[in-house]
Amino acid sequence: MADEKTTDPFLPIANIGSIMKECLPANTKLTRGAKELVQESVTELICFVALQAQTYAVSHRRKTVNGSDIITALHDLGFARFHAILHKHYASMLRKS
Questions:
Q1: Helix axes 67-76, 83-96, angle to 10 degrees
Q2: Which residue range(s) make up the domain with 53?
Q3: In sequence order, what are the residues at sequence separation of 6 or more whose Cβ sits closer than 8 angstroms to the Cβ of residue 10?
Q4: What is the pLDDT of residues 11-69, one digit of tens each?
Q5: How many domains does the chain have?
Q6: Would you say residue 51 lies in a domain?
Q7: Where is each Transcription factor CBF/NF-Y/archaeal histone domain found (predicted)?
Q8: CA 94 to CA 86: how far, in whole Å?
Q9: What CATH number is given to the structural domain containing 48?
Q10: Which of 15, 29, 66, 75 has a CA that sits 20 to 30 A from residue 3's CA?
């Protein structure tokens, strides 16, 4: 099966670096190791939240995970600090579409 493509489950390292640099003072340098650590951590966080959101969707007899499920999952996993702002942002996105 040499033709099969293996997909990289990580976000692109360049994107990770760009996001990190936006939060830091302009003269801050980042090692590749620091970016890779954040890359792996973010991937694990996404999987963790997605699994919790999927569990919530299934408990409501749905197969599709929606934004509300993600927000609920983040809250339930201890990220309540982000709940209000994400809920407001999600509601704004729904109004636009």
A1: 180
A2: 13-96
A3: 39, 40, 43
A4: 899 999 999 999 999 999 999 999 999 999 999 999 999 999 999 999 999 999 999 99
A5: 1
A6: yes
A7: 10-74
A8: 12
A9: 1.10.20.10
A10: 15
